[in-house]
Structures are given as C-alpha cells and as structure tokens.
Amino acid sequence: MMGLRTLKPSDGFSDLAPGLGLLPMIGGRMDRRSVSQDAVSSPGQVRAKVVLSNSGPEGTIFYDVHIFYSVWYGNPLMDGKYMHWDHVLVPHWDPKIAASYPKGRHMPPEDIGSSFYPELGPYSSRDPDVLESHMEQIGAAAAGVLVLSWYPPGLADDNGEPTEDLVPAVLDAAHRHNLKAARKDEDISN
Questions:
Q1: Could you state a single Gene Ontology molecular function term (predicted)?
Q2: CB-side exposure of 53: number of CA atoms within 13 Å?
Q3: β-strand 35-40 against 47-52: which pairing, if any?
Q4: pLDDT at 115
Q5: What SS3 class is residue 65?
Q6: CA angle (120 as vertex; 149, 117 as ends), nearest 5
C-alpha cells in the first residue's frame, strides 16, 4: 500500500478560501469582512473589480465558495458493507498500458482508491457524528455553500445505494452551520 496523507485545516492551510491567496491585493492581509476594491492586474490591462461576500462582520464564511458534497459513502459498522470506498480499480485508457495494472476492486479500510486518507477513516455518510464533523470542516474552510450530489429517489450509481433519506439530515446540518445548500443532479442516463 502506498503512503497516504491525511489533510486537515490544522496542517497550516491558509484561512482564506481556496485561490484567494493567489490574488496579491487580498492574499495574507484581508480582514475577512465584505470587500469591494478595484485592482489592476498589470499596467495597461483592464481594471477588474474584486468582490467578496460573506456571512457577517467576522466573515467566517464566504458564500462565493462552494463545496461539492456526496453522501454515498458507507462502511460495515453503519451500512453493513463498504460503499464507494471499494469501487472498481479504474483502468488506464490505453489498453496496452492497462494490461500491466491490477484489476478488481479497492480493499478498504487500507486501500480506498485515493491519494489522501480521510481523517475520519472510511466513514459512513449515515453517521451523524461524521455529518456534523464535515459541516464543521466546511465552515472552517470558509466555504458557504454545500453543493449536494443528488440522485432521484430510488436511484444510485453502480457503487452505492439510494441516499434520498439522508437529504433532510444534510440540509438540517448545513443550516445549523449557516451554510447554504444547492443540488447537483447526477447523471442517470447510463
């Protein structure tokens, strides 16, 4: 098994929303209140207006920053089996190269098919403590909108089971953490 790294906010990530540190007029010195300021990207270039909005005077959440969130993960403790952690090994697009790689499925809990290992381990999306922790982490990342991956009732992808019963709990948790919610409809055509 290759070494996996667990990333968390305490690892020294910037407290700015992702990408904002790249903007010289904002990075490192923003007081995190709503900001509207003119900036010039370079001499002779068009003037651009940078507008950041957030949830309040302390600016702990930016509603311009969205996090995509999926509730299709499962583990034996909560769901009786692993879901999505044990997906099929994705083959290389070139058949000649693909032939030299293993076939089959990932084998949790050690092999979850990711370069990063979740701090909570291969969790279940049905675990209320996990849901609460995720909402806290999203808020700590300064993201203000949770974009929930959604399948119509009774449908799921090949690696999971229907999750429509989890939607109310996710929306309630998002609300408790002052997060807005949006829906991303998953492709069910295949």
A1: alpha-mannosidase activity
A2: 5
A3: antiparallel
A4: 82
A5: strand
A6: 80
For 128-137, the CB contacts below 8 A with 24+ separation are 128/169, 131/169, 131/170, 131/173, 132/173, 134/69, 134/173, 135/173, 135/174, 135/176, 135/177, 135/179, 136/177, 137/8, 137/9
Q: Which residue has the tokens 């996990």?
A: 130
- pLDDT tens digits along 69-84: 999 999 999 999 999 9
Nearest to 173 by CA among 121, 120, 133: 133
Which range among 77-81, 137-141, 158-162 shows the weakest confidence by mean pLDDT?
Answer: 158-162
Domain chopping of the chain, boundaries: 20-52, 64-185
pTM of the predicted structure, to 2 decimals: 0.68
Q: Is the peptide bond before 109 cis (omega within 30 degrees of 0)?
A: yes
Residue 31's Cβ-count burial label (10 Å; 0-12, 13-18, 19+) is exposed
